[in-house]
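Page 47, continued from p. 46.
Same chain as before, 263 aa.
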Amino acid sequence: MNKTYETLLLTEQDHVLTVVLNRPQSGNALNTQMLTDLVDLFSELYVDPAQVRCLVMTGAGEKIFCAGGDLKERHGMSDEAWRRQHALTEQLMRHIQDCPVPIIAAINGAAFGGGCELAVAVDFAYAAETARFALTEVTLGIIPGASGTQNLPRACGVRRAKEITLTGLPFNAREAYDWGVVNKVCAPDQLLNETMATAKRIAQNAPISIRQAKKSLTMATQLDLSSGYRFELEAYYRTIPTKDRLEGVRAFNEKRPANFTGE
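Result:
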């Protein structure tokens, strides 16, 4: 992608788009500008992923992935201004849910409040050993409003999610792994390398297949088994008339890597 943003750093290599939340002086907190930038980015990806086959999201610096909503900006906000800003959060969560390409978070540090909600909103996440997580909203007189009460139970179960959310207490990377919040814990200096290795592995596969599989997997927790299987079959049959399906079978028989084009 060729766009530039005030609060995001974008780089693209080998069909993997890396998105860095870039407000290190403010803990990479989600202010109005960053929410606006993220909504625009994911809107663009929904309309046309172009050559992007996987996305990696991380935070600038080594200590904080995302500190959540920018409470300095929110200090003194009117109810109406708060609601208007939160509408951007709602748009962002819907765009993340609908993003056609897989999203992996590389949690390089603290992921509190909205940062923790981002960590469980993406398809899956790797975390540095030094990362910490918390949903702190109840300590501020609100509740999670970026799908946290929906995505966290899907990651770690309802009872654990209630404990995390109702206490507002932080938990560490090893606990996050044990509870299913993250898929892998990495040494801090290897986090991005290991996340990128997985992203590049995904990006090597057939793009249409990846998108269709992601859609079907997302529905697994939203439909009964019979309806989910019908959805899977609709997604499956979309792959049959593709050039990539022919290329995949041909490459297998010719004992060579497939060259997928997304067609």
